[in-house]
């Protein structure tokens, strides 16, 4: 009931019939009732003004305020929500993710150990580390799902829990299958949208972006792993956020889906957003990321551009195939090359450029079938940099023990 309604009711009671007058014991009792109603009206007015002031404080800068509704966004008309997101095509500037001295223990196990790094907008930053390195724990601390034992991590200069409209500031895919199996794709996204006053039309937009429009009314429990992954990505994009975190976004996707995710991540970064992605598919990350943060056993190993990381931790080589390798090998070693055996009887030549190898082969009259320079790979750099930080070790290949595989 509004304050105006209460005052009107009070006036009506004051001018009511003699029956109410007598029931309340005369003018004195009636005056008490009117006073109570006036106080109640004032209290309702104070509560309404307080809610409006609180909503204004928590509305992100640069975005119009969305009227508060005690019953939730579901009862708000569509036009009231239409302006809650930025205009289509406008650039979306992200905010930095800054971690300082993060540490997290689970009993005796150290998951993250004094970890500090920054993720800047406008780049796709890869988050790399062996199994058990602490990547998922770190992402959960960024999202406020786990509290650090020490240290602090902020987004837009603030902890995640202090963001006024979290889905509009930070989107995340941490566990694609954490969706109620009985909800349809559209119902799941609309449930998320209601929590942050996001327009219903945005649900249809992100379903179109991730390619799930045709199955929008299908229950999530019937989705394949790849479809569930796409729905999780839709949830991350729902609030049109400037900061996005993706933990293993390529799981379950086919070749076309992997290429689509690669293009999506690069497009988001080109739009000025902050994109932080973890994956074990090094070949895909090498084509996607600009910068890497590498950790092992919860500690920072590297925080640098991918080209610098690769050149520091892996060397390029030249793959050489010839029916006369024995004649060429001494000349290559004399020139300072380091030689290792490659697949299919090839020879991998390190520390000697292809041009010099070609000259030596010509001088020795050696026939070459292949002379192919190979760039240093992200996978090789990753293996080299994390070799001493593996928590889980498998047995070496059977050939190493002199046993041939079946």
Q: Can you tell me the CATH topology of the largest domain?
A: Rossmann fold
By CATH's scheme, which homologous superfamily of the largest domain applies?
P-loop containing nucleotide triphosphate hydrolases
Briefly note the structural class of the backbone.
Answer: alpha/beta
Strand content: 15-25%
Poorly predicted residue ranges: 1-14, 57-90, 396-406
Principal-axes geometry comes out as elongated
Number of strands: 13
Helicity, as a percent range: 25-40%
Number of helices: 15
The number of domains is: 3
The major beta sheet can be summarized as: 6 strands, mixed
Query: H/E order of the elements?
Result: HHHHEEEHEHEHHHEHEHEEHEHEEHEH
User: How far apart are the termini?
Assistant: 80 Å
**The first-level CATH class name of the largest domain:** Alpha Beta
> What's the overall average pLDDT, rounded?
80
Give the key terms:
alpha/beta, four-stranded antiparallel β-sheet, Rossmann fold, disordered C terminus, 406 residues, six-stranded mixed β-sheet, Alpha-Beta Plaits, 3 domains
Brief account:
The protein has 406 residues and is an alpha/beta fold. The chain has 15 helices and 13 strands.
Protein described:
The protein is an alpha/beta fold and 406 residues long. The chain has three domains: 3-84, no CATH class; 97-311, Rossmann fold; 317-374, Alpha-Beta Plaits, CATH 3.30.70. Helix content is 39%, strand content 19%. It is built from 15 helices and 13 strands. The protein has helices spanning 3-14, 18-23, 27-58, 78-81, 135-142, 166-169, 185-195, 200-210, 225-237, 255-270, 282-286, 306-313, 325-334, 354-363, 378-386; strands at residues 97-106, 109-119, 124-128, 150-155, 170-173, 243-247, 274-278, 291-296, 299-305, 317-321, 338-341, 347-350, 370-374. The strands form three sheets. It has a six-stranded mixed β-sheet with strand order 5-6-7-3-8-9, with helices on both faces. Strands 11-12-10-13 form a four-stranded antiparallel β-sheet, covered by helices on one side. The chain has a three-stranded antiparallel β-sheet with strand order 2-1-4, with helices on one face. α7 crosses α8 and α8 crosses α9 (225-237). The model is unreliable at 1-14, 57-90 and 396-406 (pLDDT under 50).
């Amino acid at each position: 009931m509004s304050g105006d309604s209460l005052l009107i009711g009070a006036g009506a009671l004051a001018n009511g019939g003699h029956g109410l007058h007598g029931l309340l014991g005369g003018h004195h009792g009636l005056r008490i009732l009117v006073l109570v109603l006036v106080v109640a009206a004032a209290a309702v007015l104070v509560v309404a003004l307080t809610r409006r002031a609180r909503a204004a404080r928590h509305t992100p800068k640069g975005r119009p305020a969305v009227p508060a509704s005690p019953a939730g966004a579901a009862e708000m008309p569509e036009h009231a929500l239409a302006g809650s997101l930025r205009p289509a095509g406008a650039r979306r500037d992200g905010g930095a993710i800054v971690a300082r001295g993060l540490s997290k223990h689970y009993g005796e196990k150290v998951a993250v150990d004094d970890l500090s790094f920054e993720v800047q907008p406008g780049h796709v930053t890869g988050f790399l580390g062996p199994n058990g390195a602490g990547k998922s724990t770190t992402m959960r601390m960024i999202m406020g799902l786990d509290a650090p034992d020490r240290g602090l991590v902020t987004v837009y200069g603030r902890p995640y829990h202090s963001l006024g409209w979290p889905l509009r500031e930070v989107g995340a895919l941490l566990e694609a299958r954490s969706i109620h199996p009985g909800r349809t794709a559209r119902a799941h996204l609309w449930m998320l949208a209601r929590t942050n006053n996001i327009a219903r039309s945005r649900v249809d937009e992100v379903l179109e972006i991730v390619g799930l429009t045709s199955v929008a009314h299908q229950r999530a429990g019937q989705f394949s792993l790849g479809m569930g992954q796409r729905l999780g990505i839709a949830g991350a994009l729902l609030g049109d956020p400037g900061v996005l975190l993706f933990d293993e976004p390529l799981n379950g996707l086919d070749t076309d889906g992997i290429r689509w995710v690669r293009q999506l991540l690069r497009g988001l970064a080109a739009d000025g957003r902050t994109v932080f992605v973890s994956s074990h598919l090094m070949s895909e990350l090498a084509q996607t990321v600009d910068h890497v943060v590498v950790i092992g056993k919860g500690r920072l190993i590297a925080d640098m551009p991918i080209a610098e990381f690769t050149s520091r931790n892996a060397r390029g080589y030249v793959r050489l195939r010839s029916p006369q390798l024995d004649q060429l090998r001494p000349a290559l070693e004399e020139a300072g090359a380091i030689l290792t055996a490659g697949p299919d009887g090839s020879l991998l030549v390190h520390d000697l450029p292809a041009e010099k190898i070609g000259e030596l082969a010509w001088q020795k009259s050696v026939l070459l079938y292949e002379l192919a320079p190979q760039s240093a790979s992200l996978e090789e750099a990753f293996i080299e940099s994390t070799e001493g930080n593996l928590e889980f070790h498998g047995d070496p290949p059977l050939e190493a023990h002199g046993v041939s595989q079946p």
